């Protein structure tokens, strides 16, 4: 095989067992053929050996991950930035890397300087717009500088690209000052979007017999309408507010809720509050907190309906994996929900925070199997159209190769979307 174009992927790992953003990234990296992936993160991660076996080069540098808000922690973090950027610079120069894919904001300000000085083209993947939409003042300015320093700022959906263009763009006067005559005049790239990839062999409708087996394995009764919500327990994901709504809801007794995702009541106050509310409100017969399960595909396949009740998302991975398994989704109006669920008629979208309306929709769908089946069929077709790994990987490879061929230019190499 001829030498492949090297692409450096810079990302931060988290303490969560489940991380949709990294799972999506690794799903793409494993399938890259036209480029040679080189990965660097701040801590060892479970998939490292598998990625090495597939031909990827993996580096670990603790300086990528220092965080904290105290004065001492900020000083240490500044020192880590000063140390890691030269490492990034040397790695790029030694390996002949011309494209750097930065997968999250903490990794950006630790690696973008070294990447720019080394002459590499930067792809900044914005995976979640919640912080971007809430940012004000200096925090908003930082996001705008991130975009200005990137050759391509990449969202995961058309709506995400619109948010990027609206929220990460300097006002016209500053654009003229900074991007045409000022210190950022050589930068100011473009935006685009590429949908996430879903493993459609693993995430697929199970068939009636298999679905019955999975439901029995998970303790879901035969005539029960099983509703699931998948996400690490935290304020942004909103499990506590969902439980509060369920505690006052008159839903029929056959509708049961399953909450999956990182759940640490011994060490995390939010998880503990959710656990306490289930007990104090007498929700044990209606709600089961499952916690983390690596075989999340089997839950998607066993459930009748999926939920998204987050405060905000980028492109919710639990949503796209659920519809790929033929399980419709009812979601609050988070980013990308209307684009997928409403535009393709494979789910329902409810105004943010209206739990009464959301639970009414759950009730209505539980009593309307014909509509539920129609949504399920359309959801699978949508997944095959939008999230097919081969299509997504081809789009990323076109982006990387286009940037590598136009090193030093900020013009978009191709229209990816």
Overall description:
The chain is an alpha/beta fold and 417 residues long. It has 2 domains: 5-197 and 388-405, 3-Layer(aba) Sandwich (Rossmann fold), CATH 3.40.50.2000; 208-386, 3-Layer(aba) Sandwich (Rossmann fold). Helix content is 46%, strand content 15%. The chain is built from 17 helices and 13 strands. The model is unreliable at 408-417 (pLDDT under 50).
Provide tags for this entry.
single chain, 417 residues, alpha/beta, Rossmann fold, seven-stranded parallel sheet, 13 strands
In a few lines, what is going on in this structure?
The protein has about 425 residues and is an alpha/beta fold. It has helices at about 20-30, 50-55, 70-95, 105-115, 130-135, 135-150, 160-165, 170-180, 210-215, 240-245, 270-280, 295-300, 315-325, 335-340, 355-365, 370-385, 390-405; strands at about 5-10, 35-40, 55-60, 100, 120-125, 150-155, 190-195, 225-230, 255-260, 285-290, 305-310, 330, 345-350. The protein has two domains: about 5-195 and about 390-405, 3-Layer(aba) Sandwich (Rossmann fold); about 210-385, Glycogen Phosphorylase B (Rossmann fold, 3-Layer(aba) Sandwich).
